[in-house]
Amino acid sequence: MPFQLPAKDIFPNTAVRYPNLWILVSERLAANYWRALKFAVERLEESAEMFNDYGYFHTAEGCDAVGRRRGLSYVELGENGEFSHDHELHLRFYTHALRELSPVTIDGLPYYPIAISVHFEVDRPAYLHPYVDDCPVCGCTGEYAQYDDPAARNRASNLKNERIHDPLGLEAALYGTIRGKRIALIQGLDRFRAEYAMRIEEFESPRADINTAKLGLVYFT
Description:
Number of domains: 1
Structural class: alpha+beta
Number of helices: 3
Largest sheet: 7 strands, mixed
Shape: globular
Helix content: 10-25%
Low-confidence stretches: none
Strand content: 25-35%
Mean pLDDT: 94
């Protein structure tokens, strides 16, 4: 049977959004949950150059660990450059609940699920973090203009987080692109197709408790 996404309430109530990136590592590649987590982290380090500048272990928004890739996609913006900024790929790992459930059987094979909330946002300068709405990379522009939230101009809102920054982060992590264009300096998890038996599935949120626009499942078999 296919992977059944667990209910959101297995995660801490401080977890603002449902994890949108799931890396499923088979027992052929990892003997236990911690080895599967190590496998997932190493693949993200290799592809997205994720770095542990937080020391990984962290508790922001109910997570158990955090990684980032900073210094991406610099944009010059504003009449005097006052809205110029670079971006970061930000990943929060939720491990505590899932290590109790592992492994799960999918199509007859046992897998360890690694749950990650990933988003792409303004990084520096810090006073612009996390939103510049007119940014052609991460803002309420182009195909994402419909999610403009005038009540939260250049500030975070649930609508923009769920409908813009989460899907952009997922795209960057999976394919190393933003809005279909290659991001300099990083690659996506799809780069491992030549090294592993793997597949990627993407779909829109199927349930009310999954409060993020799009999910990606990456199977390493």
